[in-house]
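Assess this today:

___
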Amino acid sequence: MSRYQLCGTIAAVALLATSAFAQELPQHNSLGYAVAWKQTAAEYRALYHQGFNIAKMHLEAALENQKEGDKPLAIVSDLDDTLVHPLEYWGRLIQDDEEFFNDPLWDSWIPTNGMVPTPGSKEFLDFAAANGVEIFYVTSRNQGEPTWQFAKENILAMGFPLSDDANLTVLTDTSNKETRQDEILQDYDVVAFLGDSLNDFRRKYYIKGDVSGRIAAMEEDKDKYGSEYILFPNPTDGHWIAAIFGESEPPASDENRQRLMEAATSTAWDGE
């Protein structure tokens, strides 16, 4: 075999190997870009620092203005994708070529304490605790009987302050956090609510199958964002998905892929 024939053979083999590898990779995954952004983007992390910086400024002002006889100050926060990043879970989902949320995988992953603190979260919570501000964690999860204990272990594994077990509320049969939030508001001056979904703030935003209606409900409270409500980014899951599909965790189906495509092209240039 001549040198030119050998080079040609090597090139052909390399091309075939590349083509075979490409065929093994998923050709399209609706979560791919969103998860890649969460895993790598400096902008993603910057938005968390920005949110906690804003929350700290409001907390500093509240501490300075607090007078004797006022209600004690508090922070109320969601947990997943607000204070902790479940990046390992999302990475595994993409590895398995899953296109939508996978409950069994999530439930088996939660006890591993594999999440990491979101950028700025621990510093903010430590500042609040050091200044006598109560921190209430209100989350919605369901891993069966040990759900609450799993959540507590997650919090402690992150090194987050937890002054009392009563400061952790885990809702297993509903995502409605408003009842617990109102109970806290009776006894505390809540400086800010922290969340990655509008439903982390008030139940009025829990609107299924109506994108424009949910946007309109948010616009009614636009002055509260950045003050009373501190919102963090989450492009992979949440109640914004329920506004499109009618449920927060739609199954991977051709029908749902089509609905996702329709949502992504709800406005599109016609070329003219």
